[in-house]
């Protein structure tokens, strides 16, 4: 099979994250709508917003996938069916699902299904069965699959389905983001302890806490478990060995994070975009190995700068048996509020900005977020405060500065320290 460039797929929790994903170079985005996906805590989208999202993606040439990847109760069947048919009408390219009711409605609506990782597909026989019965051609492989497993699944599919049909089957794999200690995320801990089901997208993550183990006699004698956070895995990061996944024949590199911020989306998508593009543009050059390793080192710094729990190779290199748990945010940079936009002067391309917190210097990167504006980054130059040129501005100042695109009143500004 000829090696193809895999798509870089971005999480999208709101319209600002969508703008960040597009500007970072995502090939595709995946998103949820209210009450019907595995990220109940994310902002998610309404059906009218889904239409707006699809139009924005179409203009940018970005594919869009709706996640309907939770389990559904009988009372939710009308709502689920409406969502599937609305997705078809809005122009969604595919839905990511695993509940058979979602598969049924998708077939009725004539919209393609990508089988969710919640189905725990980890062998060619299961893939062949889903393909035969539901016509599914794309599978989000179980997170427990190693690179070796992926290669074996690919070769086994040829034997089961034949070369021509096997080449129609595509693999989507998780490349970056949070991992779950439970098999394919199917866990009941949050439900039993907190009354919020992980299988309904409501997980409160009791697994990510430090636990004290005692013998139950009530004398407070006991032990901290391991290094403390034994059920809280580090985040997945395949950047150090991304070429191995590409060569194994994966078709889509999925970044986790629909609960994450726009800067997380921008940095992670941007890093994987550059890595994939560089690999395909330069892999035949004699000094490729050295240059690619240097680039991956630079890109790793981008990934380190935003929210992460430390990084792990997950199961790709085999079963992780040590040093894979972590606590809290390891980001090398901290996002802090700078201020907000007071006005924008379109003829001049200048924004009037209130510095509400911290301070900013000329040439220091500023991030802008707004529901209508989306996601913008720029380096302030030639700042004016009360009509006087300044090199820096502090809390309480009002400055005027040229900006790269239209900003809107009350757009929020941030810096990273």
Which features would summarize this protein structure in a list?
globular; single chain; 31% helix; 24% strand; alpha/beta; eight-stranded antiparallel sheet; 417 residues; eight-stranded parallel barrel
Question: Explain this structure to me?
Answer:
It contains eleven helices and 22 strands. The protein has helices at 15-24, 47-60, 77-90, 100-109, 124-134, 147-161, 163-166, 189-194, 242-247, 262-282, 288-305; strands at residues 7-11, 28-31, 63-68, 94-97, 112-115, 138-140, 170-177, 212-214, 222-224, 235-237, 252-255, 311-312, 335-345, 350-355, 359-361, 366-370, 374-378, 383-385, 388-390, 392-394, 398-402, 412-416. An eight-stranded parallel beta barrel has the order 1-2-3-4-5-6-7-11, surrounded by five helices. An eight-stranded antiparallel sheet has the order 17-16-22-13-14-21-18-19. A two-stranded antiparallel sheet has the order 8-9. Helix 2 (47-60) runs parallel beside helix 3, helix 3 packs across helix 4 (100-109) and helix 10 (262-282) runs antiparallel to helix 11 (288-305). The protein is globular, with a radius of gyration of 23 Å. The two termini are 46 Å apart. The model has no long low-confidence stretch (mean pLDDT 91).
């Amino acid at each position: 099979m000829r090696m193809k460039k895999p798509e870089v797929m971005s999480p999208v929790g709101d319209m600002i994250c969508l703008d960040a994903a597009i500007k970072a170079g995502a090939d595709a985005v995946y998103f949820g709508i209210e009450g019907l996906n595995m990220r109940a805590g994310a902002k998610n989208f309404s059906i009218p917003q889904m239409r707006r999202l699809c139009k924005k993606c179409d203009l940018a040439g970005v594919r869009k996938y709706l996640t309907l990847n939770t389990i559904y109760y009988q009372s939710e069947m009308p709502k689920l069916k409406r969502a599937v048919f609305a997705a078809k009408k809005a122009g969604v390219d595919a839905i990511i699902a695993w509940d058979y009711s979602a598969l049924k409605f998708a077939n009725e609506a004539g919209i393609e299904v990508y089988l969710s990782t919640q189905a725990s597909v980890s062998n060619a026989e299961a893939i062949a069965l889903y393909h035969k019965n539901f016509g599914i051609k794309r599978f989000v492989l179980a997170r427990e699959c190693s690179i070796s497993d992926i290669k074996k699944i690919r070769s086994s599919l040829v034997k089961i389905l034949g070369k021509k049909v096997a080449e129609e089957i595509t693999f989507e794999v998780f490349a970056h983001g949070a991992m779950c200690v439970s098999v394919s995320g199917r866990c009941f801990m949050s439900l039993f302890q907190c009354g919020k089901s992980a299988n309904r997208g409501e997980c409160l993550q009791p697994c990510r806490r430090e636990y004290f183990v005692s013998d139950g006699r009530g004398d407070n004698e006991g032990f901290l478990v391991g290094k403390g956070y034994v059920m809280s895995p580090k985040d997945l990061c395949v950047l150090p060995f991304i070429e191995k996944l590409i060569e194994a024949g994966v078709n889509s590199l999925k970044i986790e994070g629909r609960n994450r911020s726009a800067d997380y989306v921008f940095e992670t998508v941007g890093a994987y975009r550059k890595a994939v593009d560089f690999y395909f543009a330069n892999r035949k050059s004699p000094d490729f190995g050295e240059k690619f390793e240097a680039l991956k080192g630079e890109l790793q710094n981008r990934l380190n700068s935003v929210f992460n729990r430390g990084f792990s190779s997950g199961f790709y290199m085999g079963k992780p048996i040590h040093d894979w748990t972590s606590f809290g945010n390891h980001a090398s940079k901290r996002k802090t509020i700078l201020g907000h936009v007071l006005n924008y002067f379109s003829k001049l391309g200048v924004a009037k900005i209130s510095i509400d917190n911290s301070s900013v210097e000329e040439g220091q990167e500023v991030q802008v977020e707004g529901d209508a504006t989306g996601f913008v980054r720029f380096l302030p130059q030639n700042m004016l405060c009360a009509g006087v040129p300044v090199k820096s501005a502090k809390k309480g100042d009002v400055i005027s500065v040229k900006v790269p695109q239209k900003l809107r009143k009350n757009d929020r500004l941030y810096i990273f320290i």
